[in-house]
Amino acid sequence: MVVLALPQKRVHPGIEDGTLKSEIVEKLKVLEPKETHLKGSEDPRWNKLKDLL
């Protein structure tokens, strides 16, 4: 038997269902990465690496 020493992750129920209103939660929503922003900005260095394939 293998026992892992991993801490349990506790999530406030208000965060899961979206009812918790807090300044910190709002700031995290503002700072979270946006998928469209990541796809829109292509780094030309990656294109050169793709040419090697």
- The class by helix and strand makeup works out as mainly alpha
Secondary structure: helix percent: 40-55%
Beta-strand percent range: under 5%
Task: Tell how many strands the DSSP assignment holds.
Answer: 0
**What is Rg?**
20 Å
Largest sheet: none
Alpha-carbon distance between the two ends:
45 Å
> How would you sum up the global shape?
flat
Low-confidence stretches: none
Helix-strand pattern, N to C?
Answer: HHHH
Give the mean pLDDT.
77
Total helical elements: 4
What does this structure look like?
Helix content is about 55%, strand content about 0%. The chain contains 4 helices and no strands. The protein has helices at about 15, 25-30, 35-40, 45-50. The radius of gyration is 20 Å and the shape is flat.
Layout of secondary structure:
Blueprint: H1 13-17, H2 23-31, H3 35-40, H4 44-52
Q: What's the gist of this structure?
A:
This protein has helices spanning 13-17, 23-31, 35-40, 44-52.
Keywords:
53 residues, mainly alpha, 55% helix
